[in-house]
Amino acid sequence: MASLDPGHQTQNHPDLESIQHDLSFLEEDELALPPASNNAVPGHNNVHQAPNNVDAELEMAVAALGDLYFEEETTEPVKLPEYSCAYCGIHDASCVVKDIKDDKWFCNSRQGTPGSHIVMHLVRSKHKEVTLHKDSPLGETVLECYNCGTRNVFLLGFVPTQGDSVAVLLCREPCLTNNALKDMNWHLDQWQALIEDRAFLPWLVKVPTGSEMSRARKVNSEQVNLLEELWQSNPSATAEDLEKSEVHEESQPVLLRYDDAYHFQKVLDPLLRLETENDRKMKEEQSRSGVTVRWDVGFNKKRVAYFVIPQTSDGEVKLLVGDELRLKHDNSKWQCVGSVKGHTLNEEVALELRGKKASKAPVDETTGFSVDIIWKATTFERCQAAMKAFAMDEKSVSVYLYHKLLGHEVSDPPVEAVKLPKKLSVPHLPDLNPSQVAAIKAVLEQPLSLIQGPPGTGKTVTSASIVYYLAKQKKAGQVLVCAPSNVAVDQLTERIALTGLKVARVCARTRENIASPVEPLTLHYQVAHLDDGEDSVLQKLLKLKDELGDLSESDEKKLMGLLRSAAKDVLTAADVVCCTCVSAGDPRLAKMRFKSVLIDEAAQAMEPEALIPIMHGCKKLVLVGDHCQLGPVITSKVAAKAGLGQSLFERMVLLGI
């Protein structure tokens, strides 16, 4: 602040200068000083005297401001038109599209999202029908196929006519391949989808300008997802409501150590729920309509439907052998569930139907079908059951492993006395190198072992050798061998069987009708081929079901009882039981106890998933994997950020085990 000079009392005060400057926009008459008060001081003129100091000058200016009249400005929020984008607020009629099903408008901008806002909404809501705005260049137009009237925009495209001045909308299936349309003067070979790169073609729905997007509400993918979730419970909610609501809370991250199993469950369960819900939504969003089917009958006399899954802008549908689908025919109201048997060379899905409705399939129809992917909560439920057993069942795992899995500091038990031959070798497996021999000896002597190595270092041979020597130990009992994927389980099952051990490969019920590379070792195969004579009741009922397809209710009940009893016999006689980590929670294994458990590819399993096989009374645990490779696949960004992708193998490594 500048200091005042006593000899120059007329010097301008900086604060006064700023006030005068700020009032420069006012007219002179608006700045006129108010008239002198009638209560003038006697002996003084009724005029304002020049101030003898700057403070008086400042007070006079402030008084003048107090007498000025400023009109109050009221800033009311701008009300956007009803056709504004529900995400960002853009309201150019040529840039927005209305979702017919929920009457919400969205623009063709992809600002903050991987796809345009309208396509993002259609994918999340599973809606397919839209209309253009009445003031758009094409007017109020419902997008539909010219030939059949289909309104699924993910199937619609356009073809230019002979003059190239008019475009005709046609659906990809079945109209584009309709021979009757080939006589028209249309360039069918130039058909182009209306949605490309997750946005509508710009000639149909314009992309907002940079100026429009700069003034729009800023949104990102996470906010869009939360808004879509909010609409499920409150369809009239707006983006402003999202800011006020507490739709999303930060999840507690995973830890290296836990106080007890209840603490473990408290942290992992919310993350598992997030992942499960996200997986369910992804599956449901992959439903497809407009499917063309061709029919056939398999060698097992079961009805098989072949079809190509229509691909849309929301991504490719990934189907695995054993996945369950629901095939529906809208006109006849028929629907039936089946399992994916595989894929043909023409990329057709082979769906084997099951149940009584399979015999009533509309085989005379080829078009008008739709496909839903059936989501099952099996993985989630078994992971939850494992965490519950970890917390409540004292016999689910040894005391030592209980504390080690939680990250507690506990004393190592005495080294187990194990009798081994001078030279370790396993029948029908390659010779072991020194590092493999050392790994086997360490596993046999310790209750918890980690074997790490990148691909190609012989982990499969090492694992099979470990299982062989574990099974040969007295009082060791049966060995449970698991992995996150069916491919890894099959590879290890095949190697273990070469050693001469009795192996039972337990497959999920949905995969029992699918050919396996280790078919003779599977539980269902061994049950069906039990050497108990062709005249046994079990064999008679199996033969009858194969011939008829279905049995009477009483025969079916009798068959199920015989199959359970036979499965129990096969499992009891096995030296080694092999299955995926999730299948370790199969009811057929519920009452079985396994002192020794080996998990291959353990670094690719979520912690709750790896816990399932361990909860069978494990006392010796072997984790084989490579935490430097890809870990568990987590689809929920929130759960992944909180650390659900950290495997049990990786956490044990971080703990220094």
Can you give me a brief rundown of this structure?
The protein has helices at residues 14-22, 54-67, 117-125, 210-215, 221-233, 239-244, 261-284, 378-392, 399-406, 434-445, 459-472, 486-498, 523-528, 537-548, 553-573, 607-614, 637-641, 648-654; strands at 96-99, 104-107, 130-132, 156-160, 167-171, 192-193, 195-196, 199-200, 288-291, 293-297, 303-307, 324-329, 334-343, 349-353, 369-373, 448-452, 479-483, 503-505, 576-580, 596-599, 620-625. Helix 11 (459-472) crosses helix 12 and helix 14 (537-548) packs across helix 15. It has 657 residues and is α+β, with helices and mostly antiparallel strands.
Mean pLDDT reading: 83
Helix content estimate: 25-40%
Distance between the ends: 67 Å
Low-confidence stretches: 1-52, 65-75
**Class of secondary structure makeup:** alpha+beta
Strand content: 5-15%
Shape: globular
Number of beta-strand segments: 21
| Sheet with most strands: strand arrangement | 9-15-12-13-14-11-10
Radius of gyration: 37 Å
* Assembly state (oligomeric): single chain
Q: What about the largest sheet?
A: 7 strands, antiparallel
So how many helices?
18
